[in-house]
Amino acid sequence: MTSPSNQTNERQTVVENIDQYLADGRPVFDKSGKKVGEVKMYSTAAGYLVVGSGDFGRKDLYIPFRLIRNIDPHDVFLSEDKDTLESQYTQPPQISTVTETRMVPGPNGAMTPQTRQVQMVQSGYDSQPAAINTVDAEKVAKQLALGMAVYDVNGERLGDITQYDIPRSLLVVEQGAFNPRVLFVPFSAIKDVDRDKLSVYLSLPKDTLLKQHAMLPSNG
User: Fold this and answer.
1) Distances in Å between the alpha carbon of 172 and those of 50, 144, 196?
2) Contact between residue 145 and residue 198 where contact means Cβ atoms under 8 Å apart
3) Which of 31, 80, 112, 136 has the lowest tally of Cβ within 10 angstroms?
4) What is the pLDDT of residues 173-213, one digit of tens each?
5) Dihedrals φ, ψ of 167, to 5°?
């Protein structure tokens, strides 16, 4: 029987190896050694890796880091079988946005309110709530302009900004002229704004945005 101290040491080793060895394209295997697919992308902040099988019509898998049993310079080994992974981990982790207002020192030393948006996710490490991105909503709003092109984390164009709502810290992104697809993207999903290229780059993949941000938030 493995003692608690040994389990802690094993988990620490896995975490260290994730930081050292995890890379896009790394083969991923289930607990019996059956190949599940290859790493398409991963987030050490959220604690998840996206695994694609490469087969047409097969869904990507969103694997929390806690299921990684072992990782070396060549392969990733998981603690669940392939059938379980394909039945339970085909949906991206739910990401919520929390708006915070705090007092910060202003230009003249006086305290002024600052509004921030924080992306929260169930951590892939331990299932606890974790912050994965924080943005200054007022600072972001000053960089935006109507018509800017919007791209997901993989560089795929999602459409153009047709509106942005500063009080709700929300982008409206539309693609298509006659029957446009509309996304309602919180400022917290913005990774970078390039005013010279009139482009906005997000921290989320397209499938997550389509699943979680295709409807106006109910609190909006």
Assistant:
1) 26, 12, 21
2) yes
3) 112
4) 999 877 889 999 999 999 999 999 999 999 888 888 998 88
5) -60, -35
CATH topology of domain 95-212: SH3 type barrels. (2.30.30)
Can you give the pTM of this predicted structure?
0.70
Distance CA 64, CA 113 (A): 36
d(CA 62, CA 157): 22
Stated as kind and residue range, the H or E segment containing 39 is: strand 35-43
Domain ranges (residues) in the chain: 4-88, 95-212
> Distance (Å, rounded) from C-alpha 207 to C-alpha 37?
18
* pLDDT tens digits, 3-28: 555 555 555 666 777 878 899 999 99
CATH of 4-88, one of 2.70.98.10, 3.40.190.10, 3.40.50.720, 2.30.30.240: 2.30.30.240
Q: Rounded mean pLDDT of 133-162?
A: 92
Distances (CA, A) of 17 to 13, 22, 44: 6, 7, 12
Cα 173 from chain centroid (whole Å):
18
Could you tell me if 146 and 119 are in contact, meaning their C-beta atoms sit under 8 angstroms apart?
Answer: no
